[in-house]
UniProtKB/TrEMBL annotation:
Comp. bias (Basic residues): 64-73, 822-834
Location in the cell: Nucleus, Nucleolus
GO biological process: maturation of LSU-rRNA; rRNA base methylation
Family: Belongs to the class I-like SAM-binding methyltransferase superfamily. RsmB/NOP family.
Basic and acidic residues: bias regions: 1-11, 74-88, 770-782
Native organism: Anopheles maculatus
Official protein name in the record: SAM-dependent MTase RsmB/NOP-type domain-containing protein
Keywords, in A-Z order: Methyltransferase, Nucleus, Ribosome biogenesis, RNA-binding, S-adenosyl-L-methionine, Transferase
One GO location term (cellular component): nucleolus
């Protein structure tokens, strides 16, 4: 019989006995008691701060300790001390682990940049974290500026310290997590031992509870250590081996007293310490094997003949720049290092100084290296399925049957295929000839995806040759509506023609007009694509001449033309379009001068706003570049790089026109004012022509084409099919002819020569022709007079005209330089008149 736990009956009175009687204590068996404590301890390890845990600790500590217990407690105190020391060492190991982890994921490893960075990390202040962040380009320009331009070492030090403290915590936590998980798993395997242990003396329960306390303290200590500064790390080089020996001896004694989970814990800690030691040694070896970078003298620089040496120096300088304050030569400024790096990069990768400088403004040193390396490699061959004729699955199947090894280009495209290898030329397969696909770079799919053309729309591709993007637009329009395909280069338009026939495109009208004047001819488009001519800085792997030939004048010329084309393209758009009013501007250049800067210019001069491109990858456009600050919405634009996306370097921006009116403040301020008059002249008629430059090639061909044929419409197609009448609710204001005709007035069939003119082009074409005729008549009369004078003077017949300067053969018509009638012709005319 015993007392009841809770007396339900009301007490009769506060008797002395009743008052002093404590609550009954249930006597557990030894097994039960041990089990209870073990469970409690395990719970305490996981949640040391929980209420039940604290209660157990209180309960345990209130007990009086036996002699044996005290001895063991002492021992544990000593072990605890050792554990603390191990913790300190572990931190160093974690640091090493962190470096390894970074190496695993950092793309810089490909170029061995990380190694040199590590080296300089080691050489520098020990304990200093890495300062060069990962290669996400989000703030690439900013990073670039920090590393290339900043000379403020104090700031840098602070930044690094903060970054380091922040950066360490997760590694520590994850290590601990792993640690505990391993401990748990080992605990399972030791469960048999646990059962045996619990059968030993009842006293042990209390001791174990104490050891849990100790363990808990250890974790607390660990956290504290993780948070505190690690200035005194260098002093912690204790003898690990000694520790190991001691540990081994003590292990035998301690393990008897320890729970399996504690033993496992201890084992793991030891393993961690061992690994850390090894990592430390490895790092020290690596650092010792390489010397600190010494800035080369002018003589040494002049003597450099081996590209391998240049390559090593590039990596060394990047290593110094990544932790400048620690690794620099105090007598050298950051500028000197940056200059050396630029020169070496120019030498190693064959760039001119100007162009390399531009790239250094965009990228951080590490990312620049990745870009340069990636630009040396060819991009994978990609093709676009022509959805007008086949499906991607079917096309892939038939090409695989021909021994072509391919895959879908990525989740982002439904039409693209990447070709790894092919036993047959891709431009000569029956599928190619049947128009089932177009050979097209992966990045060139992006602007059209951003444009998102719809059926039955009226769309303009302003700079279209050779027609990769145009044919994609036509396919998305499903051969409905009208697609105006324009290019200033007639020769290049021939390729468009061939491609369109092969691909079965029937809704296109091809024109050959200077894009700058397109709005004089036609307006009111639902969508416009401006894939502008550019320096080609994103496609260096395709045209390596860009590296050495581009100058500031080329870049300036490009962005001037791009600005003018963009303003015209916006003017061609209809803000009142029921479906669109969208414009996509793209270039295969990565220079902000040709991209964000051009867009920013247009935002200030027309009623347009930036809208999302709809592309779910790519790097955000820059909002700041050097001293320039662009519109904050520039983030909506997208940049693509060879080193991050394995695509050609590309820029895509999408604009929406919200009003057709041109802001008054800028109407009085023509764009031409931005471009020096002599520069404009040069753009139209380059005096010096570099044949390696496709940009000039276009101009030569354009001039040649103009000489041969003055008709702008080179080819017209049959009337577009599948045009659903009445699907358009409202159309932008059109001229009489365009209102009736879905092509907007441009003839869609027959020979261009038979057509009077394009819509709105009558005036534009007739006026200059009249002017030219008048001038020619004047000129003829002048020459006639001169001839008469000469004949009178010499008294003999003129068999040919006097020699005329080359420039006299050139005439300006409608603001465009055209080759007029040659002198021979003039003389012929003169003869006729005579
Ligand atoms: C980047 S390429 C276009 C590539 C084309 N969008 C494609 O996907 O195949 C630029 C084109 O602009 C043309 N171009 C250059 N100046 C022009 C101008 N003033 N007006 C119209 N087209 C021009 C060039 O002839 C060249 O074909």
């Amino acid at each position: 019989m015993g007392r009841k736990v809770n007396l339900e009956r009301p007490k009769k009175g506060p008797g002395r006995k009743a008052r002093k009687q404590p609550e009954p204590v249930f006597q557990f068996s030894k097994d039960e008691s041990a089990y209870r404590h073990q469970v409690a301890r395990m719970f305490c390890v996981a949640r040391p701060a929980s209420q039940s845990c604290l209660a157990i600790h209180r309960e345990d500590s209130n007990k009086k300790l036996s002699r044996h217990q005290k001895e063991r407690l002492k021992k544990r105190e000593i072990t605890k001390q050792k554990l603390k020391e191990e913790q300190k060492k572990k931190k160093t190991a974690k640091k090493a682990t962190k470096v390894v982890v970074n190496n695993t994921f950092d793309p810089a490893e490909i170029f061995n940049v990380e190694k040199s960075r590590q080296k300089y990390q080691q050489l520098g202040q020990k304990g200093k974290p890495q300062s060069v962040a990962s290669n996400g380009h989000q703030n690439g320009a900013e990073k670039g500026r920090n590393l290339f331009d900043s000379d403020n070492e104090m700031d840098e030090d602070e930044r690094q310290t903060t970054a380091g403290v922040k950066g360490k915590a997760p590694v520590k936590k994850s290590q601990m997590k792993k640690f505990l998980q391993q401990a748990e798993s080992e605990d399972e395997s030791d469960s048999d031992e646990e059962d045996v242990d619990s059968d030993v003396e009842g006293e042990e329960d209390d001791e174990d509870a104490e050891s849990v306390d100790g363990e808990e303290d250890d974790y607390d200590d660990e956290e504290e250590l993780g948070e505190e500064e690690e200035d005194d790390e260098d002093d912690d080089d204790d003898d690990e081996e000694e520790d190991d020996d001691d540990d081994d001896e003590e292990d035998a004694e301690d393990d008897e007293d320890m729970l399996p989970i504690e033993a496992a814990n201890k084992k793991l800690k030891k393993r961690m310490a061992r690994e850390q030691k090894e990592a430390d040694e490895e790092m020290a070896d690596a650092a010792g094997n390489r010397e600190r970078f010494v800035f080369p003298t002018d003589e040494e620089l002049a003597q450099t003949t081996n590209l391998q040496d240049v390559n090593i120096r590039i990596k060394d300088v990047i290593g110094v720049l990544s932790d400048f304050s620690a690794n620099r030569d105090p007598e050298r400024s950051r500028c000197e290092y940056v200059d050396l790096l630029r020169k070496d990069l120019c030498l190693y990768y064959s760039y001119n100084d100007y162009f390399m400088g531009l790239l250094m403004n965009i990228f951080s040193p590490n990312e620049l290296l990745e870009f340069l390396e990636a630009s040396e490699l060819q991009r994978p061959v990609t093709i676009r399925t022509n959805s007008l004729k086949t499906r991607r699955r079917d096309l892939a199947q038939s090409l695989i049957n021909r021994g072509i090894n391919l895959d879908p280009i990525g989740k982002w495209s439904k039409e693209g295929l990447v070709v790894y290898s092919s036993q047959v030329p891709l431009g000569a397969t029956p599928e190619y000839l049947a128009g089932h696909y177009m050979l097209q770079g992966g990045s060139s799919l992006l602007p059209v995806m951003a444009l998102a053309p719809e059926e039955n729309e009226r769309i303009l591709d302003m700079c279209a040759a050779p027609g990769g993007k145009s044919s994609h637009i036509a396919a998305l329009m499903k051969n409905t509506g009208v697609l105006f395909v324009n290019d200033a280069n007639k020769e290049r338009l021939r390729a468009v023609l061939g491609n369109f026939h092969r691909l079965g495109i029937q809704n296109a009208v091809i024109t050959c007009v200077d894009g700058i004047k397109y709005s004089d001819i036609m307006k009111g488009f639902d969508r416009v694509l401006l894939d502008a001519p550019c320096t080609g800085s994103g496609v260096i792997s395709k045209d390596p001449s860009v590296k050495a030939t581009k100058t500031d004048i080329d870049v300036q010329r490009c962005y001037n033309l791009q600005r003018r084309l963009l303003l015209t393209a916006i003017d061609c758009l209809s803000a009142s379009s029921s479906t669109g009013g969208y414009l996509v501007y793209s270039t295969c250049s990565i220079l902000p001068e040709e991209n964000e800067w051009v867009i920013d210019f247009a935002l200030k001069r027309r009623n347009v706003r930036l809208v999302p491109t709809g592309l779910d990858f790519g790097v955000e456009g820059m909002t700041r570049y050097g001293a320039h600050r662009f519109h904050p919405m520039m983030k909506l634009t997208r940049r693509f790089y060879p080193h991050t996306h394995n695509l050609d370097g590309f820029f895509v921006a999408k604009l929406q026109k919200f009003s057709d009116a041109i802001p008054k403040s800028v109407t009085d301020e023509p764009v031409e004012d931005e471009v020096p008059e002599e520069e404009q002249e040069e753009m139209k008629l380059p005096k010096k022509i570099d044949k390696r430059d496709w940009y000039y090639k276009d101009i030569i061909e354009e001039r040649k084409a103009q000489r041969e044929d003055t008709n702008h419409v080179v080819k017209v197609f049959q009337k577009p099919t599948n045009v659903k009448k009445g699907t358009k609710k409202s159309k932008p204001p059109q001229t009489e002819s365009s209102a009736k005709d879905p092509t907007g007035g441009v003839p869609v069939s027959g020979d261009a020569k038979q057509q009077p003119s394009m819509n709105g082009g009558k005036k534009q074409r007739t006026v200059p022709v009249k002017k030219t005729e008048a001038r020619e008549t004047e000129e003829a009369l002048r020459l006639k007079k001169k001839l008469q004078q000469v004949q009178e003077q010499n008294g003999k017949k003129v068999g040919g005209g006097p020699r005329q300067s080359k420039n006299n053969g050139m005439k300006k018509a409608g603001g465009r330089v055209q080759k007029g009638a040659s002198f021979k012709k003039k003389v012929g005319k003169v003869r006729k008149v005579k």
